[in-house]
Amino acid sequence: MLNISNNKLNKKVSLHHFTSVKYVNSKQYGKYFSRFLLFVLVLSIVVLFLPWTQNINAKGAVTTLQPNQRPQTIQSQIPGRIEHWYVQEGDFVKKGDTILRISEIKSDYFDDQLLQRTDDQIQAKNNSVNAYNNKLNALQMQITSLQQEQQLKYKQAQNKLLQSKLKVKSDSIAFEAEKTNYKVAEQQYKRELTLQEEGLKAVKDVEAKRVKLQESQSKLIAQENKLISSKNDVLNAQIDLSSIKVNYAEKISKARSDLSTAESSLLDAKVEVTKLENTFSNYKKRSSLLFVTAPQDGFINKAIKGGIGEIFKEGEALVGIMPANYTLAVETYIKPIDLPLIHMGEEFRVQFDGWPAIVFSGWPNVSYGTYGAKVVAIENFISANGKFRVLLAPDESTHDWPEAIRVGSGARTIALLNDVPIWFELWRQLNGFPPNYYQPQTTTTVKKKK
């Protein structure tokens, strides 16, 4: 009733028998309501001083802790054509199991006997190497023989020269003796001639001395010729020595030249053998690449190249595989402004997509359905999305992560920072300030120990 009229209805009509009027006019209602407001006010003041854990919310995805445990694609190192599939999507394979067989598409490798023929070429070249080794041994023996023969011939020529010199010496002595005999014969002849002129000797004696003089002169001339011949023998012996040096030096030089040529040919043959062995190894390795095998135990996710007869290039992905043994982790992306607040070993709470959870971000101990994690790696370079990647591993001191979680699932991460009162957090949020910068006690302790 607004009571804006001069006719007061409440004075003419009694309203006390109405139940609603009794409740409205009751003084107990205002008393209870006042108490309720007071209780709410006190409770709000108390709540403002309750502790609140500052946090950073981010989105991420489930991955694996080790790089070799993450999903991967299998490529072929050579181009080829798909001939046969041995697995289906979802099959489990062990390391080394054959996934598919391919065939060559390059004409250089079409020959089925390529390995055998290459091996035959290697054997032929090895035989050539052995032949050159034998030739080298023969030439080395020939050079040794020539050197020994040269030494013997040279000593023989030296002995001959020595003999010639001694013969010259002997002939020169004999020549001097003949000269003396000739002088004696000449003196005897003159003496006999003088005595014959004086009548003391007969003409017969004079003529005998003349014959003896002529015989002595003849011997002298013969001995002189013999001496000259001996000197010529000395010259011939010296020429023979020089000839031996020249002839054998020429023979040995030719043999050494042949030896060098054989060594060069041997090295060329060895190079050819090495090239052929390398080619053989490449052919053998290439033949083994015709069977694409599993690099580790895992499950076949998806056949990227399907069908039979499809041609692909080298390095092109053929099939995807998920390793069977892995350790779960979560990769999350933090804004650059929040990165200084993240440290190695920092605690996180993780909420997985599709997993029921009741989350109180400021009171992690009260939350349900979140799991503990710790920072194990912080990216040093910003990602393409403008944020820094942080890798989280399960916290062994808390509950184990669900086994049903699959790699690639989405996740929401909550970084647990410093504990502050709720009023401070409300004031910070209203003013748009970042969380308090701090250093964890573990980090400080490690630095002090260092």
Automatic annotation (TrEMBL):
SUPFAM superfamilies: Single hybrid motif (SSF51230). InterPro entries: MFP, Single_hybrid_motif. It comes from the Bacteria. Keywords: Coiled coil, Membrane, Transmembrane, Transmembrane helix. Residues 115-149, 259-286 form a coiled coil. The chain crosses the membrane at residues 32-52. The keyword rRNA-binding does not apply. The keyword Transmembrane helix applies. This is Multidrug resistance efflux pump.
